[in-house]
Amino acid sequence: MTGKREIHIQVPVLARVEGEASLSLHAHDGRIEKLALRIFEPPRLFEKFLEGRDYREVPDMVARICGICPVAYQMSAVHALESLFGLDPGPWVRAQRRVLYCGEWLQSHSLHIHLLAAPDFLGFTGVVGMAQKHPDAVRRGLHLQALGNDIIRLYGGRSVHPVGVRVGGFHHAPAAADVAALRTRLHAALPEAEALVAWTASLPLPADEQAFTCVALRHPDEYPMNTGRIVSDDGLDIGIDRFEQRFTERQEQGSTALYCYLDDQPYLVGPLARLNLNLDRLPAPVRQVLDATGIRFPSRNMFHSVVARAVEILLALHEAIRVLSDYALPDRAYADTTVSAGSAFGCTEAPRGLLWHRYDMGADGTVCSARIVPPTSQNQARIEADLHQSLQAYGLQHSDAALRLRAETVIRNYDPCISCATHFLDLRIERDA
Amino acid sequence: MGPVTRTGCGAICPRFGRDCYACYGPAENINAPALRQRFIGLGLLPEAIDRRFVSFNAAAPAFLAATGNKPG
Q1: Domain A55-212+226-244+271-376 indexed as CATH 1.10.630.10
Q2: Which one of A61, A65, A185, A237 has the largest count of C-beta atoms within 10 Å of its C-beta?
Q3: CB distance from B12 to chain A under 8 Å?
Q4: ipTM of the complex
Q5: Which residues of chain A neighbour B15 with C-beta distances below 8 Å?
Q6: The pTM is what?
């Protein structure tokens, strides 16, 4: 009976995602014929803005790409420039950067779990409705998010577009008393994060196993954040400077974000990919909490992303506590820089996944050209592939409203950051004579 | 850039021992030429001074004018 139904679903503006995107779906005879996630937010052209700028301006400028993950952009940028300049900022800077990144994972993941994703799984249209039925869970989430923001504020002066990061290290080292106060709060939050992992695992998540390739950084002995090689579960294992040899970006009609492919295939970046590829890098107490959920990782159920995010929140707390346990003020919070010309590559794990930067620098320390590949443009093709598979598996006999909700749930589950993804537009103007 | 920048941030950049980069945009009735002179005195090249005025708020008329350019 339903096989002949024509289904046209238009979601003109997706709610509860960062940025502006729409979805259009057309199914006929029980088959999806057309499906497009359209990112229509205007391109933001950040790479062009960076041209001609001094290397010292880069961390402040790229922070503006994202209000949720400014630290990630600053980290990929400073790592790129430092590696070109042959600058090693030393163990203190490296350790404190990890804490700063922990702060961003904490706040970004908490935001996504509670404000963007969980309402879908619990049957609410937003966090306000959810807070009436699950006040303690929402309060706990906001508390963890605030803690993450406070970590960023400690190192960056403010949690959005922080100002503390520079090439070579930090402008300012946090005072020991402030670090001690933070440590106390981090310890106190551990039980909350453990409870959060169990809570996400208890959510009524759809069971939808799919085949996909995971891509993440991998570090010899740490859960990856700032450094590592780019690996996949299909055997990819390359240095970050080789990214362009295997990953290609293409513009597709209807989207102002580029689609990025690995060997011409869609792939996944983000918490689930990271966790699937780095289970053995989890500290033992985190691994125990994960194992207690009963969910087996590596997982092929994309909806386990929300559990992976909670696990990374717990990991971020443990890591921040570990690093800060013997905090001492350095003589200086940064190393001096000597500029040189060439191509600079940086790649770190933003909350949403791999964030790859390339800067071609002139001998005077100014940017000649920049290329930034954010996680959402890398996930874009995977989201579309997931929508095809999961809607077909869900069953097209469902009502338009149910299909629409499921489609939105699938998209939101990736935590797409659309504003991040739209700084590209391959604008070509051809003129006669 | 503090002398020409709208306040409200709590002067976090100077507090962190770094340069203010005017992210809140121009204050009212700024004296950009005086600040330019000060920058020259500190040894900044004209292009570097221009860049300080045209970053996030490049379209703000007061900052654009400080570089000798006109809107549009």
Answers
A1: no
A2: A65
A3: yes
A4: 0.94
A5: 157, 172
A6: 0.94
